[in-house]
Amino acid sequence: MPSIANLFSTRRPTLGNLEKHGPDIAGTPDIESKKSPTQSQPVAREQQEQLICAILSRFAQVPVSAIFVMEPGWNPSGLSDEQASLVLRTHGPNIPVAERPLAALQILWGAIANPFNILLTILAVISAATKQIPTFAVMMAMVFASTGLRYWQELKSMIQAVNLIKSVTTNTRVLRYRASGPEELEIDQRDVVPGDIIAVTSGDVFPGDCILITAEAVTITQASLTGEMMPIEKTVRLAAPLPGETLDLLHNDNVCLAGTSVVTGNGHALVVSTGKDTYMASIASELAKQRPENATQIGIRKVSYVLMGFMAVMAPIVFIVQGAVSKNWKGAVMFAIAIAVGITPEMLPMIVTSNLALSAVRVARKKVIVKRFDAIQSLGAVRILCSDKTGTLTADHVRISMSTTGAGGLSQLPIELAYINSSLQTGSRSPIDHAIVDFVNESEQDTFTYIPRDGWVKQGEVPFDSSRRLLSVLVSRPGGDGSEGLLITKGAVEEVLDVCVSTYNHHPSPSSEASKPLGLDVSPSMTSFLTASERQKILETAQRLNEEGLRLVAVACREQLIKPFMTISCSDESELTFIGFIGLLDPLKPDAAQAIKDLAALNVQVRILTGDAPAVAAKVARDLGLIPSRQQLSTEDDVEAFSSSKGEEGLILTGVQLAALVDDQDAYKDAIDRCIIFAKLSPYQKLEVVKALRAGDGGRAVAFLGDGVNDALAIRGADVGISVDSGTDIAKEAADVILLEKSLGVVADGVVEGRITLINTLKYIKMATSSNFGNIFSVLVASAWLPYQPMLPLQLLVQNLLYDFSQASIPWDNVDPEYLEAPKTWGAKSIIRFMVCMGPFSSPFDITTFCINWFHYGIRTVDSPLVPRAQTNWFLEGSLTQLFIIHFLRTGKLPFIQSRASVPVVCTTFGIAGIAIAIPYMPKVNTALHLTPPEPIFFAYLLGMITGYALVVHVAKTIYQLAFKEWL
Ligand SMILES: Nc1ncnc2c1ncn2[C@@H]1O[C@H](COP(=O)(O)OP(=O)(O)OP(=O)(O)O)[C@@H](O)[C@H]1O
Ligand SMILES: [Mg+2]
């Protein structure tokens, strides 16, 4: 690859120019300050896009060399340190979209604009208009209290979210100008500024909107912007602008937008815009909207629809029945509205947010970072965890174990050639390349016995990609005139064999090896034709080494005459001579087997999806207990059963077999369901398997854990994409969850947290919906029977608010361990069943209270002076039964004895029950609410009713669990 310094003359950038540049680019119309994307209207969005296009097209539509003439402050050798820090100061840090918090005002608006507040405000205005000032004051206090609570929770959660994301670091390689030549540094992507020259290779994410200035077989994916996963080719622009040429941001050949990532190849790019000036920032709100709803969001929506349906039916019925019975139509309107407010689960958004934030913070202590809070709930729902092999199951300490010929005899030659290839390649350094280079560097100086170690000069490169599984470098021989070259290719065994025509005739000792003065001789005299049987023998050796757990890299080469300005491509990877293998050992992670057991206990199955050979993956799976080894099959029957199900072979599927099954859908589905190991998969096949697993069994949640460029598609395609902090940027960008420590064990912790969150959210929903449902019956009976309002609208609202406050502590509640044993998803059906079955049990006790009022106190007319007493009695009975029953509904077991609520739940339920009892005794408050102290004897009735209700609920709960085999 021509170096950057060769491409452009190294000019000393001047600070003066750069200062001029500062306001030029940084000061180009401030996109966000004109109109925030969240307020975006189509026109504003178009304008933003035009502005971004205008900035980019200045540099994107001219030949690359002209850019640096147009902007003399910029230099192909990079900015100097002073320049970079000056621009950073004037332009501000390059904060990625995910780290940019929502404005506090936006959150406040979200908390204010909800149906609960709207209904309450309408009610309050009606009260004020009818001169009921205390009612108005109480209602407005409720609006402020509920809004304040939600605002506070959401603001806190958002700050926590941003802080969590900040703990995941993304580095960028930038060039810094030095008098001696450009120096490559790794800096935090937040410090990248316009004018920076960055070096990118496969797996890197562009930190800002960039223009490519050098490129070697670069393809990028724009999935983060468009959802389109197919990589597209990007090149350097050498041509002058055409008349009338316009810039198409997403399809321009030399523009790489912030957030997009390099799939293959490598090169350098000039950063033109960063932070809020990037295209990604301008479409951030649209991107958030485009994200498909997850199970939780769908569940919440469905439940909300059911409740809204209830509201739409119940409110008019209550209005008509009560209006007709009492003839007080004005009072009936207010009462019906209060009932409607009661049915609204106004605390739901707040409960969901606090639940998720709480779990996210808890898992962060275990070094698991959720990029989007709702991913934690999806993690709780996961039934299958797919993982790639290296780094999560294995320790990722890849070490060279042996260097052999195709027949398995030891030989130094493969490692010597591989070293030249690995040390000169400039693509992303895989653990394999690191291992090869480190092994040779750490060995004695005289390790190289066949070929010279130094002096090889790289003339061309075809970077590694996971579909081809080959990596080639073209080198000129040491000490030669530069025209005699060698193409050295290494890669997966079958893929290398496919491009070989001969094998090298190894000699027993290096001295007898016919080596050229300029390195290795692979002329026809030194090689034999690669026959089918020879090929088979090599594959058998590979299989044997794989079965021992060795990961293999095959090495091949060919003589190549080097011509001036020569470039090489995949088509040059042909007619090679097979040299041998390098065997690499990657021990298992010590905690992986235990983590797999923990996941199995949580009913999460683990599958391996790898690009590596099936035999190595099978060895890993056997050692981890994922597939039974012969010793583990204790009885002859076990062995027979295992063998009749095609044994181990029946559990492994390779990419080639998968492709062959595509036309037979039944066999395809069966294989996907049965197999534990999917080997030799291309990145697309990893995605395909994830999709097929998700679709299986009527739809199930699938997580994918991986760290490589070849995992990014599957990470994006899974319900929960998981990556590791040390993984490639592209994988981290695609992931929903990032593990700061590479360990499968923490995934199990995340799954448990996800289930706790979901169970606590379900608790709230089931309690709120069933208690509302029960109230509806009572209200209907009361409306049809009692000539007076059974409770004033204001009293209903206060009762509702008290209940809401008591439930605000549910995210902090304990969860019975048995609920954590199986994956859990939202089921609107299960919620509705719970509501219908458990809700009505409160009504008989409400009706008992009406009877006490009617028969014991003789309150039978609308003008009875004792009406406030009747209303107080129902207020107390309704509030206290609802509060105590929380303890019965939160668990399928016996409350207080078999399962205890957490301290916050106990404190809030009992505390609020105390407040409810105290309210009728509080001067001023009681007058405002038209409540009066009850007769002491009523507390005896109350105790009886609460005990009776608890008994009935416990019996109903037992029957419910027997019938439906579930509770929460
Ligand atoms: N840098 C490299 N140079 C040459 N060959 C490589 C290189 N990296 C991988 N290979 C070959 O490609 C095969 C597949 O590896 P790849 O890393 O693409 O798969 P993977 O799915 O990431 O594997 P794993 O599950 O172990 O992470 C390897 O077994 C090896 O033979
Ligand atoms: Mg990998």
UniProtKB/TrEMBL annotation:
InterPro entries for the chain: ATPase_P-typ_cation-transptr_C, ATPase_P-typ_cation-transptr_N, ATPase_P-typ_cyto_dom_N, ATPase_P-typ_P_site, ATPase_P-typ_TM_dom_sf, ATPase_P-typ_transduc_dom_A_sf, ATPase_P-type_domA, HAD-like_sf
Molecular function GO labels: ATP binding; ATP hydrolysis activity; P-type magnesium transporter activity
Region of interest (Disordered), ranges: 9-43
Keyword Phosphoprotein: yes
Subcellular location: Cell inner membrane
Transmembrane segments: 107-127, 133-152, 305-325, 331-358, 901-922, 937-956
Enzyme Commission number(s) from the entry: 7.2.2.14
Keywords of this entry: ATP-binding, Cell inner membrane, Cell membrane, Magnesium, Membrane, Nucleotide-binding, Phosphoprotein, Translocase, Transmembrane, Transmembrane helix
Membrane topology according to the record: Multi-pass membrane protein
Known function: Mediates magnesium influx to the cytosol.
Name by which UniProt lists this protein: Magnesium-transporting ATPase, P-type 1
Organism: Suillus luteus UH-Slu-Lm8-n1
